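Input/output pair, single chain:
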Amino acid sequence: MIVEHHHIAHTNVVSKYYQFVPEEMELAIKDFQSILEKGGYHPDGRMLFTILSEPTSEIMQAEIFLPIVENNFTKLDEEQQANFHSYFSVKPMIMTRIMDDFEAASQVKFWELMNYIRRNGLEQKTPVFVEYKTSHMGRRYVEMSVGV
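Output:
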C-alpha cells in the first residue's frame, strides 16, 4: 500500500555521508553515533537515512540522519564532515511501510514506490528515505518514502 501526502519533519538533526556494503550498514550507524557522543552530543534514538546509490549497487552510498537532544551544534572536527539541520522537512512524499523482515521486503517496497511514481505520472524529487519507527505498542517498523 502506498500513502500519498506523507512528509518527514524533525528538529536538530545531524547528518553524515557514508559508503558501505549493505551488510555493514549497522556499523556505519554505530560509527556515526560514536562520533556524535565523543563530540558531546546525545542522539535521541531516532534514525533515518537516504539511499543515494542504485539499490542494486555493491557499495551503498547513504546519508544517515540522527536527531540529537541538543538545540545547537558547533561543528565536530572538520574531518568528520557532519552537517546540522535545525529543522529538516521533506514534503510532499509518497510512503510505504515495512512491518516485518526489512531485508527481504526492502527491495520489493523500493520498486513498489518507483512503479507508483511511473504509473501516476509523478516526478521523483528526492532520493528514497528510510525511517525506523516504533509504534505506541512497542512494535518496530520501517517507513520508506520518496519526495514527489
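The mean pLDDT is 92. The chain has one domain: 3-147.
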